[in-house]
Design brief:
The complex is a heterodimer of chains A (about 110) and B (about 325). Chain A has about 110 residues and is α+β, with helices and mostly antiparallel strands. Chain A is built from 2 helices and 5 strands; from the N terminus they run ββαβαββ. Chain A has a 5-stranded mixed sheet with strand order 2-1-5-3-4. Chain A is globular, with a radius of gyration of 12 Å. Chain B is α/β, with parallel strands linked by helices and about 325 residues long. Chain B has 2 domains: about 200 residues, FAD/NAD(P)-binding domain (3-Layer(bba) Sandwich); about 120 residues, 3-Layer(bba) Sandwich (FAD/NAD(P)-binding domain), CATH 3.50.50.60. In chain B, about 20% of the residues lie in helices and about 30% in strands. Chain B has 7 helices and 21 strands. In chain B, the strands form 6 sheets. In chain B, strands 1, 2, 5, 6, 7, 8 and 20 form a 7-stranded mixed sheet that branches. In chain B, strand 1, helix 1 and strand 2 form a beta-alpha-beta unit. In chain B, helix 1 runs parallel beside helix 3, helix 1 crosses helix 6 and helix 4 crosses helix 5. The longest helix of chain B has 19 residues. Chain B starts with a strand and ends in a 5-residue tail after the last helix. Chains A and B meet through helix 2 of A and strand 17 of B. Chain B: It catalyses: 2 reduced [2Fe-2S]-[ferredoxin] + NADP(+) + H(+) = 2 oxidized [2Fe-2S]-[ferredoxin] + NADPH. Chain B: Belongs to the ferredoxin--NADP reductase type 2 family. Chain B: Keywords: FAD, Flavoprotein, NADP, Oxidoreductase. Chain B: Its cofactor is FAD.
Chain lengths: ~110, ~325
């Protein structure tokens, strides 16, 4: 299991514990935790509605892929720490990370 | 005014299949969608995405499914209003409804079916003070008629294919075109990006890179747009129009004001027939919610079939509906 924190649109932070051996994406864990993540395309980096900002732990995530960057750069707001939750795999590298929800509220 | 039996709000896969199920029962349909083409999120967001859980198709691409649905409903000759958002709903004395769209198209129907998926796709808007007060007064999020911009000063914002394509196109129409992009490079089509850089080098357009929009100003109509670069230097450019092109995002929109029971942006329905709390209004597909709801296209198809059998009583109040298989009756057009 890995533990990281999620900050919602109102600034509230909560720890989330997720299995790191099931190949889940951060988007799937956020949806399962009932965060208002749209994830319109179902996790294929095609819609950018699962936009998150990595407030802590960016180094453990690896680089964004071209399709992910394509989507992020199409948004009105993109940050140096922006990622798509659907493209982040849950692994032990996420231990202690902090994500802020940036996608449109559901 | 357009007159029909069933007005379907949303022309995604479930909305399209509703036409087929309604057609089997001799009910005519008119579809409205905010997007300029049918197919909903399948065509707009992931046309090449393979789908594996449509019965009879081991694998089908999203756009192929939409194309096949269009072919399937051809015999029932539905009519369409595309590129317009549904705005108002007015109940008539006889229980029927008149829907009015954002472009003032009116549709009279005995039954309304909301098959709006995640909602209507609306443009993503930049965070700018007073943005909405300039909408329609210099700020527009799509180019419907390029002639609107002839001999005008236009600023486009964005770095995707739409921003590149419209910059190239409008450079031959507008008096002056400026493209603002937050980065130094474009991730759109390389050919288009190269052409935009060439046009900037030749002075045909102004290209402002590594900059974000910060402020809009005007007196009744947009007059200038300010932007700031990474060094925090701000410049202001006089303009007649600003076209932010940051893609589309689904929103429930005016449907939320129709008096329907809504839970977390989804419409609550009775699972016996997918009717809402308002008589003669149904909701099918991703836009409805009920216990154990699964947002699957095939579930939406099932909901459409049941819903049409329920709607029959409003369209043909004097007739009794008897269920028949298509294998017995075939698909009989009107």
């Amino acid at each position: 299991m890995v533990t990281f924190e999620v900050e919602d649109h109102d600034g509230n932070r909560q720890p989330i514990e997720a299995p790191d051996d099931m190949g889940l994406s951060l988007m799937e864990v956020l949806k399962a935790s009932e965060y208002p993540v749209l994830a319109t395309c179902g996790g294929m980096a095609l819609c950018a509605t699962c936009h998150v900002e990595v407030l802590q732990g960016k180094d453990g995530l690896g680089d964004a892929t071209d399709p992910e960057l394509d989507q992020l750069e199409g948004l009105p707001e993109m940050y140096d720490t922006s990622r798509l939750a659907c493209q982040i795999r849950i692994s032990d590298q996420l231990e202690g990370a902090v994500f802020k929800l940036r996608g449109e509220d559901q | 005014m357009i007159t029909t039996d069933i007005c379907i709000v949303g022309a995604g896969p479930v909305g399209l299949f509703t036409v087929f199920e309604a057609g089997l029962l001799k009910m005519r349909c008119h579809l409205i969608d905010a997007l300029p083409q049918v197919g909903g999120q399948l065509s707009e967001i992931y046309p090449q995405k393979p789908i594996y859980d449509i019965p009879g198709y081991p694998e089908v691409k999203a756009q192929e499914l939409v194309d096949n649905l269009m072919k399937q409903i051809e015999p029932f000759d539905p009519s369409f209003t595309l590129g317009e958002r549904v705005d108002y709903l007015a109940k008539q004395d006889d229980g029927s409804f008149v829907i009015t769209t954002s472009d003032k198209t009116k549709v009279h129907a005995q039954v309304i079916v909301i098959a709006g998926g995640l909602g209507c796709f609306e443009p993503r808007k930049p965070v700018l003070e007073n943005l909405e007060s300039f909408e329609g007064k210099g700020i527009t999020y799509m180019v419907k008629d390029p002639e609107q911009f002839r001999d005008k000063k236009v600023i486009l914002a964005g770095g995707g294919d739409s921003a590149l394509d419209w910059t190239i196109f409008l450079s031959d129409v507008a008096e002056k075109v400026t493209l603002v992009h937050r980065n130094e490079t474009f991730r759109g089509a390389p050919d288009s990006a190269a052409k935009v850089f060439d046009m900037a080098n030749n002075g045909k357009i102004d290209l402002i890179l590594s900059s974000n929009l910060t402020k809009i100003s005007g007196n009744g109509h947009l007059q200038s747009v300010s932007m700031k670069n990474k060094a925090k230097e701000e410049i202001t450019v006089d303009t007649d129009y600003l076209i932010p092109l940051f893609g589309l995002s689904p929103k429930l929109g005016p449907i939320a004001e129709w008096g329907l029971n809504i839970d977390k942006n989804a419409i609550e329905v009775d699972t016996t027939d997918y009717s809402t709390n308002v008589e003669r209004i149904y909701a099918v597909g991703d836009i409805n919610t009920y216990e154990n709801k699964l947002k699957l296209i095939l579930c939406g198809f099932h909901e459409a079939a049941l819903m049409c059998h329920s709607a029959f009583k409003y369209v043909y109040p004097d007739q009794k509906l008897s269920f028949k298989y298509t294998t017995v009756n075939g698909v009989n057009a009107f």
